[in-house]
Amino acid sequence: MTEINRQLVLRSRPKGLIAPGDLQLVEAPLPSLADGQALARVKYLSIDPTMRIWMAIDSYLPAVAIGDVMRAFGFAEVVESRHKEFRKGDKVVGFTGLQDYCVIDSADKRGSFRKVPPVPFLSDTAFLGVLGINGLTAYFGMTEIGKPQKGETLVVSAAAGATGSIAGQIGKIHGCRVVGIAGGPEKCKWLTDELGFDAAVDYKQADWKEKLAAATPKGIDIDFENVGGEIMHEVLERMNLHGRVVLCGLISGYTKGDPALENFHMIIVKRLRVEGFILIDYLDRFMEAATQLGKWKMFGKLKSRETIVEGLEKAPDAINMLFTGGNIGKLIVKV
Amino acid sequence: MTEINRQLVLRSRPKGLIAPGDLQLVEAPLPSLADGQALARVKYLSIDPTMRIWMAIDSYLPAVAIGDVMRAFGFAEVVESRHKEFRKGDKVVGFTGLQDYCVIDSADKRGSFRKVPPVPFLSDTAFLGVLGINGLTAYFGMTEIGKPQKGETLVVSAAAGATGSIAGQIGKIHGCRVVGIAGGPEKCKWLTDELGFDAAVDYKQADWKEKLAAATPKGIDIDFENVGGEIMHEVLERMNLHGRVVLCGLISGYTKGDPALENFHMIIVKRLRVEGFILIDYLDRFMEAATQLGKWKMFGKLKSRETIVEGLEKAPDAINMLFTGGNIGKLIVKV
Question: CA B115 to CA B89: how far, in whole Å?
């Protein structure tokens, strides 16, 4: 066992891609353990797009502080323990950080470390991917929000990534037509030939929008969105009525400007549900609503005010009033 | 009864506000009725922001064709009938169009006309507002999507408009703290003094963002969004985790450029549900997911691939690979 702990420390917040010096490799002594702590040797580190957000801004987790070891999820093995729950030799996953050794502390309220059970046929690295952050993300995103139904069309962006590749396969398991969007022929071939996607669209090809249209002849019912920007826009254009967008990531924006300026970024960080609606979908329930509204109105719980413009010929001006703030309450033209 | 029918016909699609000539007033003869038709005198026209969309683009309804009478919802009285369901004297609401007289046709599959019941204390115009499009929109938007809970904070934009003013009052009925955003002191005063809103924020004041923050000390749980743009952005900034955004309208964008280019417009038109999520909310269900994923993996239903980069010092380059498309499947650093 080496006596030093190499660490990657955040020195500056990156602009665009990470530049040399944003993360600095330093050597620290191995920490000595207090009661309730365990020391673990980091074996594997999960590399995820969200790390770029942690480097830049406060989001669903606070930004990593300048001077701190960069946050990362990883797989580690306990080498020394004064912690009740972990023994030497235990394999764990949790927020190890980008370093050789990490300390597991029972005072850590987040309790981010958990033991990995010995599962036959599964490699250690599976606990970072298919059974780790990515698999779990794909699972909950698809089952809780996407709610795939047999025969529906699912489109996954960044489909050859760790999360997208699993989200798409979960769609296949549920009987969806699954179309992946990825960059380059190798990734696309992997999606269709190995993972069983029904089609893959290479967004680096000039005609990718036509290819996407051809691959989704019945429109799109579910968008498992990892990318944002132009790709998401094109997918939204092809969505069917009442479709679901599982907003998992917006990787196209992470290295551009301040991602906090993007409304869709806030929808993710705050786990908002944004739902568009139009009254015509509720035609068969008009009586219910009108009855309730009428009661409220009669009991004085609903007040209303009207701005009435006289004359059919004034209707164009009346429409414009809506956009110049001219009316209060209901705007009506008396013919 | 006059023998002519004045109509406002769409001549050109407006740029920005409606300009003279976009809608032309013409005089047509009164239509003669065939079997299954009724003629109704239009009394009141509902003036709604969505009309600006109908003039410009195909959306949830096709754009009004150039040369057609402009579409509008209105209140009318039957003056002559060869229609089984409507008699002379019946009061109706439906898509009358911007004209003096409209024909109700039993062949109209949309069946857009319905009789208005005689309700005591309610004026005819109430069927265009509080019991009409706006009331119904506020009702279904709040009950089906907003789902207001006692003690939550609701923010309504365009709060002094026909829909917003009712949405806010429905929030009060459900026990919410209700904050309206509107333009000018008269509108704001109406919201707080007459309608019982807890606060009103005048977005025309320079310090409106600070006022919004002060009025929503516990953040915002529900956004009944009618405006979009900068106002929506500021509201989203103050949303609480797991908040709901009832996306009803984006009036700030209707007179600017092509609203179809806006992703939020598509969410409305297609009635999409867009939901952001982050894995950490599902911590207590990790076992369930990992067990299912593990089964799928063992039965060959889930395939995965890893790109492994060796060496802790390579981690910064590895993070960048995610943004340059360098990896397929799960990206891992072996320490």
Answer: 11
